[in-house]
Design a protein that fits this description.
eight-stranded parallel barrel
């Protein structure tokens, strides 16, 4: 993969709850330097990220309702609408994983369909909590809701502590459940080798806080 191709699949991520304004600014500067696809931040940092990324084509992505997606529908809508007002370009929102486990599919669809109307939406299904059949069902629901992408995990997903081979297997199940939908892999993707493994498994987008390290590694290899 060319350097530009690698950069354009990375959502450079800073969702550290202890992050300060200077940390978000640093993340945005890194994204500009390497021309990443996007910058993913918590809702309180959307406005700042938008300011830092003005006059670029780098997307501001807002993470909503980790780790289990259990806030009320009205609260989720409120967060997403404010994020749009603050300048977000995309939403990364967690599906209500408990509702999925209890097969409350109509409730999930109602929630996600309305959110997807606010901004282009990537839905996190928390694949580490799910069986293979639940991964496929969740991915199908994401597609039916009108989202642009289905995403593996948040920082609290038990999958984050498993081997990347398991994550790669989950990506293939997601593709099977939602053919034609974009697929985003996230969590513990720290090296160029990790990124390539995710892409080979079918990922279109990779969320990582290690984007700088990955790009430095890629640059070094191309010298």
């Amino acid at each position: 993969m060319k350097l530009s191709q690698i950069a354009k699949i990375i959502d450079h991520t800073n969702i550290d709850p202890k992050a300060k304004a200077k940390d978000i600014k640093k993340t945005c500067k890194e994204a500009i330097k390497y021309a990443f696809r996007g910058v993913c931040v918590n809702p309180q940092w959307v406005r700042l990220a938008k300011q830092e990324l003005k006059d670029t084509d780098i997307k501001v992505v807002v993470l909503v309702d980790p780790p289990m997606g259990q806030s009320s529908h009205s609260e989720r809508m409120k967060i997403c609408r404010k994020a749009k007002k603050d300048g977000a370009d995309e939403i990364d929102i967690v599906m209500n994983i408990v509702d999925l486990k209890y097969e409350r599919y109509d409730k999930i669809l109602k929630d996600l369909k309305e959110i997807c109307k606010i901004l282009p939406t990537k839905v996190i299904i928390g694949s580490g909590y799910l069986t293979d059949e639940e991964i496929k069902k969740a991915s199908w629901l994401v597609k039916k809701a009108g989202a642009i992408c289905v995403k593996t995990a948040t920082q609290k997903d038990p999958l984050e502590h498993r081997e990347l081979e398991e994550k790669a297997r989950h990506l293939k199940l997601m593709i099977e459940g939602a053919p034609g939908l974009l697929i985003k892999a996230a969590g513990k993707i720290r090296t160029l080798k990790d990124l390539r493994k995710m892409v080979q498994a079918g990922a279109d987008i990779v969320g990582t806080s290690s984007g700088v390290q990955i790009m430095r590694e890629a640059i070094k290899k191309q010298r």
